[in-house]
Amino acid sequence: MLRASEKRLRLGQRLPDILHARPQARYYREYVLKLGPVAYWPMNDLSGLPVDVSGNSRDMTAVNGSPTYGEQGPMSEPTVGYPSGAYHERAVVSTRVNDFAVCFWIYRDGTPTANGDIFTHGTTSGGFQIEWNTTNGTIRANLPSVGTLANFATLSNQTWTFIVCGKNTGVGGTWLAGPNGTLASSGTAAPGTPVGNTRVGGQVSTQTRLSHVAFFDRMLTQNEVSTLYQIGTRVVVPLL
Fold it and tell me: DSSP letter string over the chain?
């Protein structure tokens, strides 16, 4: 028989996991925050207003269309689903044109039949846009006056994919992008211009879910990218 004091001690040891029933998501969130994001939206809010937990108060407050809250996400957390025409808007998180990165988990139900923005950053003259390329079902990015990033990820339907995309040097510098813990130099192609500058979400004719969207004012390292993916897929528990 356990004494009352021993029961309280064991309860205290388990309390963090009792309060947060999804410990893997907690580990992921804590590691993202350790990396120092400019903005970070876990997208697990059920209120309809995804909250920036970085401490910089860049909550998503404007909604167009009808996003669905509480959709099943990676790491068993709730997330936001974006049907056709639905998106959130947010404050501009940064105007940097050098050394930045965005990472997120994405899920699609069917191949989009219209190009649409997934994440836009900065301004139309100094930011970038990650978007669907419906020609071949890939994800690509547009950079004003420089070009369209080569297609860097192909998503399987009804599968969560981890994406990192960013630029590490200069307006015309090298773009690094890749799915599921990888990074590769992707270069640029024909010119393109982002649509809007503060959008997160669908704008396509199929369902897209987004989770754990984070923006950094530096390019992440390969080791950081690999660790994020491994935490999210329960391969490792990080040392924080």
Answer: ---HHHHHHHHHHHHHHHHSS-HHHHHHHHHHHHT--SEEE----SSSS---TTSS-----EEES--EEEEE-GGG-EEEEE-TT-EEE-------SSSEEEEEEEEEES--SS--EEEEES-TTT-EEEEEETTTTEEEEEETTTEEPPP-EEPPTT--EEEEEEE-SSTT--EEEEETT--EE----S----S-SSEEE--SSSEEEEEEEEEESSPPPHHHHHHHHHHHTTS-----
CB 238 within 8 A of CB 30: yes
CATH class of 22-232: mainly beta
- Closest alpha carbon to 22 in 212, 205, 190, 172: 212
Phi-psi domain of 33 (left: phi exceeds 0; alpha: psi -120 through 50; beta: other): alpha
Instruction: Output the tens digit of pLDDT for each of the chain's 240 residues.
Output: 545 544 443 333 333 443 445 788 999 999 999 999 999 999 998 877 899 999 998 998 877 778 889 888 999 899 998 887 788 888 888 777 678 899 999 998 777 766 677 888 766 666 678 888 777 778 887 776 666 777 888 887 888 999 998 877 654 567 788 899 998 877 665 556 666 678 888 666 678 899 999 999 888 999 999 999 999 998 766 565
Q: Angle at the Cα of 227 (from 18 to 137), degrees rounded to 5?
A: 105
Predicted structure pTM score:
0.84
Which tokens is 226 given? 């690999």
